[in-house]
Specification:
Blueprint: H1 2-17, H2 21-28, H3 34-45, H4 47-66
Length: about 70
């Protein structure tokens, strides 16, 4: 429930502020804090690339399935 409410709140804020997610995330990320620690791991492990590849694969497959 905590995760669901956090995601919903984040999406509501994105919709309301109409700013990039990165800008909002930078505003709430304290240097040396828990979010920064997680973001550092994501960056080291190449999470952005993995996420982009996964989204592209899902999109390709959705197109294939829609034929």
């Amino acid at each position: 429930e905590l995760v669901a409410r956090t995601v919903k709140g984040s999406l509501d804020l994105l919709d309301y502020r109409q700013e990039k997610a990165t800008v909002l995330r930078e505003r709430v990320t304290s240097k040396g804090g828990t979010t920064q620690a997680a973001m550092d791991v994501f960056k080291r492990k190449g999470f952005d690339g993995i996420l982009k590849d996964a989204l592209h694969a899902a999109r390709r497959r959705a197109k294939e399935l829609s034929r």
